[in-house]
Amino acid sequence: MALVFSENSVGLVSPKVARFDQPLALACGRQLNEYEIIYETYGELNEQRSNAVLICHALSGHHHAAGYHSVEDRKPGWWDTCIGPGKAIDTNKFFVVSLNNLGGCNGSTGPGSRNPETGKIYGADFPMVTVEDWVHSQARLADRLGIEQWAAVVGGSLGGMQALQWSISYPERIRHCVAIAAAPKLSAQNIAFNEVARQAILSDPDFLDGFFIEHGTTPKRGLKLARMVGHITYLSDDSMGTKFGRELKTSQLNFDVNNVEFQVESYLRYQGEEFSGRFDANTYLIMTKALDYFDPAAVHDGNLAKTFAHAQASFYLISFTTDWRFSPARSKEIADALIAAKKNVVSVEIDAPQGHDAFLMPIARYLQAFSSYMNRIEI
């Protein structure tokens, strides 16, 4: 049966592709001579071109943030909870742009794309990209769309880091920076988790030094393990306990290390299997490294307040009590630096048991706080 869209859905959407022939210099010292960015838009750009909002995605995200690609779809875009008519990012008010970053595996130029210089799939030859590189490419997309200034740049997790970088790299082109469940840089523990995930991929015999596509293989075991490790960090102990506890999948223990015995084991294996069938291993390596490298204060000897000295945006920071990956203390670091830099900042801590993934969920207090701020943005 065909899907009937609710009144607060953006409905059917179609991705668009912007092709760029102007070389993009990257922080790693290499450049992309040509590339494509896939994106979606929701709502209408007003005559003054003053109501545009950019959505920046997290590690495994992509351009499809809201609505449906066909009437047969059963699952909407990854942030449909927050984007649409009457929602926090109200498409009756805002023109919303959501894209897949360079290095991704959902339509933008990345490791699975063909290298125009060699005619072969990039694979491991795709250059390393950083948060700053993404922001520069996003600015070019804004130019293409005729958007001189974003009403807001919004993102959660790695997306929030991109929003922060926008306020630093292009202070005159962003009026509001909304960073949700984000951090000014990764802790050693976070880098360690990313390294374990990368090693799971790199040690998979089917990875073949990153050139698995041309050999017709997929490092599914490595990707599966990487996702399982990552997924544990996205949830809180309380949420996992509430959802699974120590419930058994069958009525009794099997005393067999090869069997799935606990419900939480079954859940993690499902998540890993699903992810390994749709995500690119090289993209996972690139995205986690971009997370590790993000540290905009490094050029100012670690002085975050000095880093934000030229920012012109107003800042809205949201954190979640049980998010131990990017804890509320990390948002407080950002807020303290912004206050020291005499910037306009509002910081909200939401009591939620869901952990880091809370920014993706329909938590009433979170949506209320998010909507309240977005509704106050003048266009």
What is the helix/strand order? EEEEEEEEHEHEHHHHHHEHEH
Tell me the span between the first and last alpha carbons.
40 Å
Give me the count of strands: 12
Which band does the percent of strand residues land in? Answer: 5-15%
As a percent range, the share of helical residues equals 25-40%
Number of helices: 10
Main pleated-sheet profile: 8 strands, mixed
Poorly predicted ranges (pLDDT <50, ≥5 residues)? none
The whole-number mean of residue pLDDT values reads 94
Describe the model:
The chain has 379 residues and is α/β, with parallel strands linked by helices. It has 10 helices and 12 strands. Strands 1-4-8-5-9-10-11-12 form an 8-stranded mixed β-sheet, sandwiched between helices. A hairpin with a 5-residue loop joins β2 and β3. α3 runs antiparallel to α7 and α4 crosses α6. The longest helix has 15 residues. The chain is globular. The mean pLDDT is 94.
Which helices and strands, and how do they pair?
Layout: E1 16-20, E2 24-25, E3 31-32, E4 35-42, E5 52-56, E6 83-84, E7 89-90, E8 95-99, H1 131-144, E9 152-156, H2 158-169, E10 176-180, H3 188-202, H4 220-234, H5 237-243, H6 263-276, H7 281-293, H8 304-307, E11 314-320, H9 328-340, E12 345-350, H10 364-375
Helix pairs in contact: 1-2, 3-4, 3-7, 4-6
